[in-house]
Amino acid sequence: MKCLIVEDDPMVCQINEEFAKRIDGIKSVKTAGSISVAKQMLSVENFDVILLDLYFPKGTGIDLLKWVRQEDLKVDIIMITADRSVDMVQKAFRYGVIDYLIKPFTFARFSEAIKKAIKKNNALADTKDMDQSMIDNFLSEKFKYGHFKQGNEKGLSPQTYDKVREGINYFNEPFTSDQLSQKIGLSRITVRRYLENMCENGDLKSDLVYGKIGRPQKHYIKG
User: Is the pLDDT confidence value at 75 over 90?
Assistant: First the structure.
């Protein structure tokens, strides 16, 4: 797969480029520092996936999204931004992004988004006709939040799930629900529910740590 990164911040662009090159299935990675440069590159070269920032000095990622759809380019787009507003998320999905990554994100989540595009492209390349089960599978992939599917877990929201995931990135060592609760400003009970959900889905691991006095503490470890 050929990847185009559209990002005006050189440091962020370099990080995303290094991430992309680590993923099996990505054959080439090119970059564009502006919407106009991206349009020029897309006009003369085919890409399989675009990693698209949202805000630029001139124009927005949504402008490029609209242009790509108007030109009927066959390319998947992953939005990468710090904008977590519901309105922007909805707008991006309405214009056909296959994933929406909120900065800062882990390599694991970045890799998951890219692999989703690779998996879809590989499946479609080997298929002439699609049955309902294949379509349902693609739709279920589109609306996943990591391994958490919106609406499948009563009382859990994608927004809070993302906040917990983001908070976990602050820890380089095993941590407790109390420590994460203090870091992100949510109650310990709420945080623990989401952490346990992540453990059930394989996003986290947990371990009981026994001290000299008192009950053992549960520590969570990034997978």
Answer: yes
* Better pLDDT: 212 or 81: 81
Please enumerate in sequence order all residues whose Cβ is within 8 A of that of 156, keeping only pairs 6 or more positions apart, or say none.
148, 193, 194, 197
In a domain, 75, yes or no: yes
**Look-up of token digits 């630029």:** 56
Residues 84 and 129 in one domain: yes
**Three-state DSSP class for residue 92:** helix
Instruction: Give the pLDDT confidence score for residue 43 in this predicted structure.
Output: 96
Strand (E) or helix (H) holding 111: helix 107-125
Q: Decide if 2 contacts 28 (C-beta within 8 A).
A: yes
- Edge-first strand order for the sheet with 99-102 is 28-32, 2-6, 49-53, 76-81, 99-102
Together in a domain, 92 and 193: no
